[in-house]
Structures are given as structure tokens and as C-alpha cells.
Amino acid sequence: GNSVTQMEGPVTLSEEAFLTINCTYTATGYPSLFWYVQYPGEGLQLLLKATKADDKGSNKGFEATYRKETTSFHLEKGSVQVSDSAVYFCALNQDSNYQLIWGAGTKLIIKP
Amino acid sequence: ETGVTQTPRHLVMGMTNKKSLKCEQHLGHNAMYWYKQSAKKPLELMFVYSLEERVENNSVPSRFSPECPNSSHLFLHLHTLQPEDSALYLCASSQVSGPADTQYFGPGTRLTVL
Fold it and tell me: Which of A92, B81, B100, B104 fits a 20 to 30 Å CA distance from A44?
């Protein structure tokens, strides 16, 4: 079946460091891929998404490229800020209008 | 502010209590969801309503009972819960069109079962 695997956290970085959070998936065909972010005390919100191979989603300085050949959707940011501290979730949706398949989440801690 | 509100934000209840969680969306969406978020586990989809009809029920124990009286409101009725039901319960909504739909989440209700 479909699945999403994220790197375990927490990931701790200093401000202005480069960020990569790995996400790989298992699916048949061409799923839509998502990154959601959950800030402390809040619900999840969409950060970015991509719907076909080689698409790049981007938002708030974050980017992720849909790599069909490596079944990956790694999240990157060139220079993180303390305000980026949150939990990041990778997810996919292939055939359903409703059922997202979620990764376990990666907690990111940015120190000043 | 995502346009999805949840009340209460925190709830403590005993195993014999009956309580309800409320969700309201102000986005004009046609689908609403209940999720359970537990520490170190992937998000669990509990129920989905589309056009006020339940379309997904992912093997959730009967002590959780959803209700969707209209497209803007969703309830989760709780009774005789267990301590392992303690978690963050998230409500979400979306405008259903296909697999690339964005779901919009409320802030959640932190439930503690004593």
C-alpha cells in the first residue's frame, strides 16, 4: 500500500543554517505530494504541494521537488529562522478525494 | 486564522462522562474531517463527511460518534472514553475536487481522559 517515510526528529539547527527534511514515499502511479506545517499550539496548514513529476512547490522560502525516479519530496530552505520552529508533515494522496497518507512528522528546532 | 474554529480548546473528562467537540468552518467547503493526533504517530483520519454524508469511517470505536448537521458544522460526541483516547483532535475542511485538494485545519481540542 501507499506510505510516507520522513526523517526522525527533532532536527536542531542554528539560525541561518540550511535545512533539509527528507521525505520518501511508496505509491503506484503519480500521487499528489504535500508538506504541511504545524506551529506550536496550532493546527496544520499547507506549506506547499506538487502534483506531478519534476514539479517544484515553494512557499515562504521553502522548496520541495517531486522526484519520481527517487520517490522523494525533500523539503529545503536556504536560511532558517527561529520562527520556522515547528513540526513538518509530508503527505501524499493518490486516488482518494479525502484520504491523505501522512508521515509521522519531523520536529524542527531553530536556535538563535 | 485558517477559517476553521474548534471548541473547546482543552477538555478533561472522566471515563464515564459524555462530552462533545465542536468544529465550524467559514470557508464554504463541502467536506469536513476529524483527525486524531497522538504523540509520535502519524495523523489518523477518523471520519469524513462530504455534502453532510459520512463517506469515510476508519474503524473508529463506537465510543466516538460524529454528527454533521450542515456543511459548516461538525461534532464529535464522546462517551465512556479510555485513557488511551487522550490526544489532540483536529478538525479540517476542504472543497472536494480531486487528490490535490488542500485541507484546512482548526487549532484542535486537547483531550485528556482520566
Answer: B81
Residues of A with Cβ-Cβ distance to B94 under 8 angstroms:
98
Task: With beta carbons less than 8 A apart as the criterion, state whether A66 and A73 touch.
Answer: yes
The C-alpha cell that represents B60 in the structure block: 473508529
Q: Strands A106-111 and A11-14, how do they pair?
A: parallel
**Gap from A7 CA to chain B (nearest CA, Å):** 12
Q: Which residues contact A111 (CB under 8 A, 6 or more apart)?
A: A12, A13, A14, A15, A82
Query: CB–CB of A95 and B99 under 8 A?
Result: yes
Asked if A32's CB is within 8 angstroms of B105's CB, the reply is no
Per-residue buried b or exposed e for B42-53, using 16+ beta carbons within 10 Å of the residue's own CB: bbbbbbbbbeee
- Chain A interface with B: residues with Cβ < 8 Å: 4, 31-32, 34, 41-46, 49, 51, 89, 93-100, 102-105
Q: What is the pLDDT of residues A56-87, one digit of tens each?
A: 999 999 999 999 999 999 999 999 999 999 99
* Alpha-carbon span B31 to B68, nearest angstrom: 10
**What is d(CA B64, CA A106) in angstroms, rounded to the nearest whole number?**
28
Residue B24 contacts A, CB cutoff 8 Å = no
Closest CA to A100 of B20, B22, B45, B52: B45
Asked if A102's CB is within 8 angstroms of B107's CB, the reply is: no
Q: Do B43 and A102 touch (CB under 8 A)?
A: yes
